[in-house]
Amino acid sequence: MMKVRRLKKREFVKIIRKFERAIKNNCYDCMGGQKKLDCDLETCSLYPFRPWVKKDNRTDFKKDK
User: Fold this and answer.
1) pLDDT tens digits for 31-54?
2) Would you say the pTM of this structure is higher than 0.70?
3) How many angstroms separate the CA atoms of 61 and 65, rounded?
């Protein structure tokens, strides 16, 4: 495992983009190639990170007031 603190910013961004691409590819495959639908599978470990959802609908990380 690479030490994150010793990475340069450019290398760290490359790693983050690889993770984003992997999540998008997994969701695309799971949804049968449809980007427009919102995922209903709340038991998926990638559910909080699902792409193609409107930011208004993301209630996963909103703070309670």
Assistant:
1) 888 877 777 888 888 888 888 776
2) no
3) 12
